[in-house]
Recover the amino acids of this structure.
């Protein structure tokens, strides 16, 4: 068994030392792709550390795609060719995604199950369909969400601290009113344009905070005036960066320094991770009660359904009830009851698993075909471990607009990464495309590769 | 046939002169209760005025409850005892309503029809249920709303200027962002507390504007700093005042004086008028393009359904699309499609007619029982021509809180009018109760009268 020298006296915690060392070994090839790793118990004994230490390190490696876990079989190193390409190019944690935050393809939605549940709600819940809905949403749905979060995300959420709303944008509006208009909101740059638009439409101060390869740069955050940081550490949009544990701890330290600081953890995309489990949320790490967790079902179920939610820390929840409890819930009881059943009866997780499988196959097929194509050397793929999009870094003489146009011609949704920048980045990003493959069909892949070869010729 | 002297040279238009004269005759008894009035054509010929003049006058009298119209029979003067009590006490236009803006009783909602339409949508419209919804809402629903408004409200609305949103409160938030945070919003005082709360939560300047017996006082409005007046001329909450045409013209004059002025016509309750047709909206009178019309289905269908809409003047609509078009529609496609069918297939109007009949009978029964009770002289009933609530002006030694408590004990929702005041009114309003009878059952009436007799004893 491989031995790692871990230093209990170092400033970096043991699990992170172990995580770094194992990752280094995988990247260098010292641990071969496909090699089975020791069990958590065995490694803990071997290194004389607690099992929790190994567990935390493995979890992070899983989340970032370095390890894969096979049920009843154990942990295996990811094969180098399926490792994030960026990783092989010294930008370790850059995992990225793309354009207009696509939803999962509607054709895979289990419509007949949903329709069956709706008919059931119509039959059984007449009374509730005619009563006003509590401002925070129906308890039934809040409980179902808490259960789902516990099972799939490791989040312990009090259903009484969950607020249901008609879409994330609506909840951003509510958060501005709740946290206060005098605050300065930090936005990830590059980032999702709509978030900036919501803050802009509300005329509150919002400043771009630059990302580095681990996500929000703490240095940039400290230099900014932001007191509320709106971020997606689980899978940043559009770069797809998964913020590692070390950076998360730094962000938590920033948060803890002042009672006036807040984090809005926008976990919009955590469901579509292909490699390993999602990293534990910052909400779960929060011991100062100032991380707000948000997520939505619009993207995972259907965009025609507008249901999002947020979990507020208890003190903030009390403030919400006192000051904004007058608002009526914006989501119809009918959708809430149907979604509650969809979650409770296991359909949501089944649906997600099916989606994940589908997109992983599509992605693998694309990567394989790309690898075999003559343009393989001129294209760097990033962010394909998660989400419904990836970043293509193209060596091309064409303008970004021209590349977008050429891809659109073969039915591929793509947008230049530059479109997501608030402040133009110092390093040029020409030729970086955020490509959505949620609408992509297997049959389109040869044509897509063909066009990419032309673009980079 | 009675003759009225109308002066075409006067500043007051002919139809308003006629309306005033007929109203005077009804109030004085010169036209007896139940007396048939001349047909519009006959009276127009007799007075040598256009038929439109008579039509406008009759319409206003109908809307305010002075006339009733019997199909194929003609126009009749309202009987004095069922006239607005306040009218008999020199506060001519005061028609009032009450507590928490109640919804129509859920038990009357045609649930099986709604469920049938929902099942139909599930069968036929699968594709649309999986597609994103246009920011302004589905065209199908916007067309259906425009059709309903044309038929029942005389409003000519361009479906492309309608914006669908998850509840009126959500749309108020959008309007603040659209009109601008630097404006000062005028709120009716007394008024619906939630409206003030929404402006308050957004930290925009909002000032109370006092009402007189015709609705928003133009003098008070001019003395305020308000540049946007948020009002319900069709049926003010909680006073139930129906703003007469003359006052509407004065408000339109105020609006026309500056391009920076706006009116938000919140027509939340126009569906539940018992006497005659609703008065034409200010939106329909608007020739400067600065009246925004709003209404909701939450109260008429079920509060568990959150669908409201607003009609924006074309120029404002263009601004909305440019600046706020990025927002996703907050109402699920499913509810939009179901409601579109409910409107298109005539169910909505049928439902409203049924509701109106039900509440009118309940009200009549209450008034009759009250009239026959020993406390009749100590109670003045106002605002019972419309809405699901009325104002009871009680001669009582009890505090308002005690009266509320006594009524709650017999299951009657009531709140002191004082609770709706932003600035305490100069004239004391002690003993004025806003009473909701939307949950009231016929069987409760004797008990209610009994308690009222005790309270005013």
């Amino acid at each position: 068994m491989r031995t790692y020298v871990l230093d209990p006296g170092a400033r970096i915690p043991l699990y992170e030392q172990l995580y770094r060392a194992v990752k280094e070994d995988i990247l260098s090839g010292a641990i071969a792709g496909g090699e089975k790793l020791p069990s958590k118990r065995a490694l803990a004994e071997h290194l004389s550390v607690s099992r929790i230490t190994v567990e935390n390190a493995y979890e992070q490696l899983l989340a970032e795609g370095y390890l894969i876990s096979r049920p009843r079989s154990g942990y295996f190193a990811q094969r180098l060719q399926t490792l994030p390409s960026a990783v092989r190019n010294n930008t370790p944690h850059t995992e990225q995604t793309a354009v207009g935050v696509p939803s999962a393809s509607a054709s895979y939605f289990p419509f007949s199950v949903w329709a069956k549940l709706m008919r059931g709600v119509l039959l059984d819940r007449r009374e509730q369909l005619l009563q006003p809905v509590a401002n925070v949403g129906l308890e039934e749905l809040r409980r179902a969400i808490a259960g789902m979060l516990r099972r799939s995300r490791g989040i312990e959420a009090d259903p009484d601290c969950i607020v249901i709303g008609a879409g994330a944008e609506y909840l951003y509006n509510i958060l501005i009113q709740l946290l206060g208009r005098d605050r300065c909101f930090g936005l990830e740059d590059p980032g999702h344009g709509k978030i900036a638009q919501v803050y802009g439409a509300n005329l509150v101060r919002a400043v771009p905070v630059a990302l580095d390869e681990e996500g929000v740069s703490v240095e940039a955050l400290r230099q900014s005036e932001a007191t509320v940081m709106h971020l997606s550490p689980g899978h940043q949009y559009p770069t797809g960066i998964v913020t590692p544990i070390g950076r998360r701890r730094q962000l938590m330290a920033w948060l803890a320094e002042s009672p006036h600081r807040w984090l809005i953890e926008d976990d919009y995309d955590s469901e579509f991770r292909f490699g390993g489990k999602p990293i534990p949320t910052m909400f779960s790490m929060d011991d100062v009660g100032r991380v707000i967790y948000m997520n939505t079902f619009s993207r995972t179920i259907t965009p025609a359904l507008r249901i999002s939610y947020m979990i507020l820390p208890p003190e903030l929840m009390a403030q919400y009830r006192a000051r904004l409890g007058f608002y009526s819930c914006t989501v119809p009881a009918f959708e809430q009851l149907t979604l509650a059943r969809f979650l409770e009866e296991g359909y949501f997780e089944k649906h997600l698993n099916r989606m994940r499988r589908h997109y992983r196959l599509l992605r693998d097929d694309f990567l394989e075909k790309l690898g075999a194509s003559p343009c393989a050397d001129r294209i760097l793929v990033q962010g394909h471990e998660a989400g419904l999009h990836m970043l293509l870094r193209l060596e091309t003489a064409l303008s970004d607009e021209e590349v977008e146009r050429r891809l659109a011609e073969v039915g591929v949704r793509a947008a230049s990464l530059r479109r997501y920048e608030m402040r133009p980045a110092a390093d040029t990003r020409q030729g970086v495309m955020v490509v959505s493959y949620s609408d992509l069909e297997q049959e389109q892949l040869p044509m897509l590769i063909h066009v990419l070869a032309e673009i980079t010729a």
About this structure: Chain B touches chain A through 48 residues (CB under 8 Å). The two ends of chain B are 47 Å apart (CA to CA). Confidence is low (pLDDT under 50) at residues 81-99 of chain B.
